[in-house]
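Example 5.3 — TonB-dependent vitamin B12 receptor
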Amino acid sequence: MRSTPTALAAAIAAGLAVAAFATAANAAPTPAPLAQATDLDQVIVTATRTANPVADVLAPAEVIDREAIERSQARSVTDLLRGRAGISISNQGGAGKLTSLFLRGADSDHTVVLVDGVRIGSSTSGLAAWQNLPVELIERIEIVRGPRSSLYGADAIGGVIQIFTRRDGDAGFAPRMHVGGGSNGAHEFGTGFGGRTQRSWFGADYAFQRTEGFNACDPAPSPFGGCGLAAPEPDKDGYIQNAISLRGGYDFNDAWQLQLHAMRSEGENEYDGDYTNYAETVQQVVGGNVSWKASERAKLSLTAGRNVDSSDQYKDEAFMGGFSTDRDSATLQADLTLAPAHVLTLGADWSRDQVSGDTVYEVDSRSNRAAFAQFQSRLGAHRLEASVRRDDNDQFGGHTTGGLGWGVDIAGGWRIKAGWGTAFKAPNFLDLYYPYFGNPDLVPEESETAEIGLGWSGHGWNVDLDAFHTKVDNLIAFDGAIGLPGNVDRARMRGAELGVRGEVAEWTVDASFSVVDTENRSGGFQDGNELPRRAGKSARASLDRAFGDFRLGLTGIAEGSRYDDVANTVSLPGYATLDLRAEYALTDALSVQAKLANAFDRDYRTAAYYNQAGREWHLTLRWTPRQ
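Solution (predicted structure tokens):
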């Protein structure tokens, strides 16, 4: 594997300049939308673009904080998300390999993904590079299920997932470090710091991860070998990741705040393929926010950022091609408290996507402008939400979406909620403009969702049951009549999600169960088929308990069968895995973690022909001095 230190060094140098600037200033140690939150474990911002207690949010949502991330000993974002309510993941052969996430049975490009408020994802494929997001640099993840185009625009059919990079909220200086290793030649290292002065907050983190991997693909016999192979390549397919995160902020006074953040992840990925078998990738997010609290009832914020998603592909040592997509975005948002428990949010979004690389597109950039409004109200035991958004795009023109939500608290800790929303997905550059294949006349895919939920809280337990029904029209697929992509498909997704969190006999319980029924309603031979690579049933359960300085935990994940193709001829059987965890605090600052993943060495696949890891062990030593 080759190393690419030059770009990373440049990113480190630029980011350290940001951190140095921040040492002369002070702002809240969170992204701008969370600036007014006092307890990060109890609020969520993604569901409404404003900070709200999780219990008051009408959309089905889940928050994974840093404590839960470290307790899980997850070594990737997909490892952390796999099996959670509404989520199905498909991976093509281990760490660094192409990974798709399906939320509530929607397509893998039907989920908006944000990093510190900046939208990420490839403009060509429409997919977010989950495999290149460094889990060690993440502070928390917010998952919101259901349509959110009325707040976030295109692609929020299945929901929104927002990732927040590391933050340090306490005063003083807080260093940290970890080192680890395990099966398949895995080793990793990370270090960082963060802190606050009277008027500043700042921080930086670096993480390195390397694995020799395993054989990613066992192809079927030629000529249709699968994995893009005419013949097997029984070698190990490794992955290297170098990642850095930097942030800083300045508190001018009680009204004005400035925040800056940057994250860059560089990957070196080996895989199986006849045309290419090695790629060097970059995932970069840079952004900032200026906020003005005009009064206790009015706040104005301006957020801007850029996401870079690029990849260069090689066949052994020969360069075969590459691409890069840049997404610039900006948001102006005003939050107005009209009366106690009545909040009006008004905003304007702008974004521009640009594509460059070896492929020459007829159109290589497009812009989108949007305005949105949301009203949140609480009347006694009742909560109401209403939102509307209008997008104006260079390619497809105008599109309007809306959403409604209602909830009520009833006796005994019970609550009921219901919602309705429309959403859409914009065609990507491959569908629109790829030479000899694209169709510039494509229109957005459209959806409509109705959902209802029942929840209960009491005695340290939280239980939520949500059901949904989604219809999607104008799905983009190959149209044989014109020999190009067309808006020819339709689909229906419906299902239910159960989440249970609490404590029994000093064991912390976090469990979820999902059922999703997908149906292709496009007519022809596909009509009535299941949508590919979505498991119909899935479950995840984690148990953790501390015994003084010692902690034990386990996570079980089970997923039902799925089809790998639209014709439903290639079936992938269901599977179940069990991970065992242990942790011991050697001192107040030093702890050792041990994990045995897939303890029973189950053989399973989430995409046809692509292998998943068998039994693996990993040890990690963490140093985090108390302030």
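Remark. The longest strand covers residues 318-339.
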